[in-house]
Design goal:
Rossmann fold; 5-stranded parallel β-sheet; alpha/beta; 5 strands; 3 domains; Methyltransferase, Methionine Synthase (B12-binding Domains), Chain A, domain 1; 17 helices; globular
Length: about 375
């Protein structure tokens, strides 16, 4: 997910906290109502063609989760940055643009039915603005996705063949291509940050624009993971008393490559790591923090609608006196542009990518007595 620049002319919306929570609690009923309305709409065949209706059901579930995050945390800038990406990615996968204003109208009807038109007026104002912004959102979505980051010169000639190996699902070939360049642990950092990370950005941009399928995007990401696994034993030995870190994706968050890269790179920098992967339940992570007593915990959020679960985890950690002194980092694409919000909820620092996360962790390590 690559949210773009702030969409212009965002009104100063104000959804009261109690109303935001009512919207959140009404989620299952709202989603069910919208699903039924879209399924019965005469425009549905033109919207999805031969694609499965499940695509829209998932979109409706994600929409409610995302809008809950927007309302609960008053993050209308996040809404404005994300809307063009939503338009671009779904139309890129073949969804007709006419779906969006019609579906948003069905959301308004569902909200009126579940909460009441008068009580829900502040939420309905936001939906009305989205509908009125339809043409401008289409124009914003037509702009190209964020340009892939350039690869480091030493990797330039491998960019195309490694990308081809990713799309072919050929992890063996990808490893054969990169292994001669990874001789010492420091080379692993260059592999991750100067080749694999930019390639993943490019893969994401190709998916957003509809030039590759969901299956191809998943295949490429899986091969990147297998390449990373190929260097699992390639780490600097930890020092006598290494600083400790726990790295995990947020609860419900299924994207883990960014967190995995951070865990590996912290090991390269001499940290002792416990890496928990994707979708870690709060209690499991909190129990490990008590047992392992790390200097820091890094939580990765790729999709913004997982932010509330991540911040609830932070709240519970801060409420535990046995975790006093723990440094908390929240990073990933879902945390971009939200530093003020995160810091206000007990987070010590944020990082949009693995390189910045390592740099921040190293400053914290230097401050440890």
């Amino acid at each position: 997910m690559n949210p773009g620049p702030l969409f212009p002319e965002v009104p100063n919306f104000c959804v009261p906290p109690g109303l935001a929570r009512r919207y959140q609690a009404a989620g299952p009923a709202l989603v069910e109502t919208v699903n039924a309305g879209v399924k019965a709409h005469p425009g549905l065949p033109d919207w999805i063609g031969n694609r499965s209706f499940r695509m829209l059901e998932l979109n409706h579930e994600n929409h409610h989760a995302f809008m809950t995050t927007v309302f609960v945390f008053s993050q209308y800038g996040l809404l404005a940055r994300t809307l063009p990406w939503v338009y671009r990615s779904y139309t890129g996968q073949g969804l007709a643009p006419g779906y969006f204003p019609e579906a948003l109208g069905l959301w308004m009807d569902a909200v009126k039915g579940q909460i009441g038109e008068e009580a829900a007026a502040p939420i309905l104002e936001v939906y009305d603005w989205m509908i009125r912004s339809h043409e401008r959102l289409l124009a914003a979505a037509a702009e190209p996705p964020e340009a892939p980051a350039p690869t480091w010169k030493s990797w330039d000639e491998l960019h195309a063949p490694v990308l081809e190996a990713l799309f072919q699902g050929d992890a063996r070939r990808a490893l054969e291509l990169v292994s001669p360049r990874v001789r010492v642990p420091g080379d692993l950092e260059s592999l991750y940050l100067d080749l694999l990370q930019p390639l993943l950005v490019q893969v994401g941009a190709l998916w957003e624009s509809g030039r590759i399928s969901v299956a191809q995007e998943h295949l490429a990401s899986a091969v990147v993971g297998r390449v990373m696994a190929g260097f699992a034993s390639f780490r600097l030995p930890a020092g006598r008393h290494p600083p400790r870190a726990v790295v995990a994706a947020a609860p419900d968050e299924l994207h883990e490559i960014g967190a995995w890269m951070l865990a590996d790179l912290l090991e390269v920098h001499g940290w002792q790591i416990r890496y928990l992967g994707a979708n870690v339940p709060e209690k499991a992570l909190l129990d490990l923090l008590e047992e392992f007593r790390p200097t820091l915990v890094a939580i990765s959020v790729t999709m913004p609608y997982h932010l509330e679960r991540a911040l609830e985890l932070v709240r519970q950690a801060r409420a535990n006196p046995r975790l006093a002194g723990l440094r908390v980092m929240v990073g990933g694409l879902g945390a971009r542009h939200l530093e003020d919000l995160l810091l206000a909820h007990g987070v010590d620092g944020t990082a949009a990518n693995a390189a910045k996360a390592v740099a921040l962790a190293e400053t914290w390590k230097a401050a440890v007595p």
